[in-house]
Amino acid sequence: MAITENKAITTNKKVLEFVEKQIELLKPSKVLWIDGSEEIYTQLTNEAVAKGDMIRLNEKTYPGCLLHRTKPNDVARVEARTFICSKKEEDAGRMYNWCDPQEMYAKLNNIMAGSFAGETMYIIPYSMGPVGGPISKIGIEITSSIYVVLNMRIMARVGKNVLDALGDSNDFVRGTHAKCSVNPDDRYICQFPEDNTIISVNSNYGGNVLQGKKCFALRIASYQGKNEGWMAEHMLILGIKRPNKETVYMCAAFPSACGKTNLAMLIPPKSFQDKGYEVFTVGDDISWIKPGPDGRLYAINPENGFFGVAPGTNKKSNYNALMSTKKNAIFTNVAINPDTMEPWWEAMEKDAPDKKKPDFLVDWTGKQWWPGMVDADGKEIKAAHPNSRFTAPAENCPCISPVFKDGTPVPISAFIFGGRRPTTVPLVYQAKSWNDGVFIGSIMGSETTAAATGAVGVVRRDPMAMRPFFGYHVADYFQHWIEMGEKTPVDKQPKIFNVNWFRTDKDGNFIWPGFGDNMRVLDWMLKRIDGEVDAQDTAIGYVPYSKDIDLTGLDNFSEETLKEILVVDNDAWKKEAEGVKEFYATLNVGGKMPKILLDKADALLEKVSK
Ligand code: OXD
Ligand code: MN
Asked: Catalytic annotation on 258?
């Protein structure tokens, strides 16, 4: 019999039934409801530190911050072990795995049975979005990992008030996380969209086990959104304020590692700051989008914190993200300076140890580390794991939007898509209609470069940056986008744009400066939204006239160079259109692809073949 450490904090029968069933299956020694109180978090932090699971960082320079090291075999999301378990295979996402739900439940129950023996089971009630908000949803995650409890506290709204808001309702996502032995061969990250259920086993890495994030807010929520008439997207949300104008909000989708967090926290160039431009972050990874009473689409960031990649984050690349990590943050798999107890990662530009002294760091695996260390094969050893992370409260971010704090959904004026495309795709172009925009989002992707093994220049398609996150069939998802457009009056539809910050010259150098200078491209979008400038009508959509992108204060970048990255090269686009048709053919099994999109692929090929 498990000892209940504190009293159940709800009378909701469905919640209590779910908890009882999990106690029976997992057989914990103790049960603790996470009620959101400081005492419980303090108690759990102390316990994790005493066990060596967490390391406290410098209380002066990083107050309230902790370091955690995962097992070396458990450092990233695992698409190959991620499943959508819908009753019918044709209802699954198609871009990763499907399994029959009953078969998967049996397998998982077998792996998890009794695995909490000797441990405490934590019950985490959490809200994605502000508690009780108009677009918010509720989940319960059961885990034996204090790391998960403390991270969920940052990434979602957690506590008894969530259960109070749930009342007697059965509308909550049932989540179970069983760390087991962290055996990668038995690792499963499973979503059962028809049952509102998530089960993660044999992992303790954030993206797999902080279930509010990818598992719920994208995979389960995208399915809920399709059924309930809203959208869950892998999109940042930012607000741009110009003098004497209302703040304009935009959502942007990019595949992982294409700079979503950087764009969300962009600092405008000086010439724009001088004019009074300000950028506010509403979210850096996920948007939930619903039609509002006035017919426009409104978005919230369902998360409450950032789960950002640490290496490369520095004052120059993303000052606001760096500042967000300075208090009450949890670092995973970064290095530390054992003298100062401060975190360190590659390109942090601070406190790099001195090889000669010899100073050293403790690397992400807990071993001594000096710059220039190589392994037995002569390969450089990194101090921080390349996918090391910070979990930081959004409220720490210097440019967090006031509307994030009060939880008000924001009206969206633009959707932006983009990927890494060294060639072909211009710096920016605008879709001519909503459905053209759906087409553009459906074909986005990143080109492989010489940095990775395999063929160079092959486009890995990642529709709407959702490839690893579809909770249902990708073709049905495209149809849902089309229908959301139909339900939105044309004059209220967000404009849809595609950007490409990553065009390279013949030596492989990026042509566009990127980072804060991306403001110049966003500014062109604002002018288009306000109908202030014309654009060139091309085969792929509206492309800016170079004179309409404000290059003031941008040294060493001429309008001629800008023109080069605005060109639409029909030969390159012919190849692109053929690639799109091939890609669509792979998705069209069973004839599910919307005809509108198939026709658009044909039309593109025809236009650029002339
Ligand atoms: C993330 C991802 O961690 O997309 O946000 O991988
Ligand atoms: Mn993401």
From this structure: yes
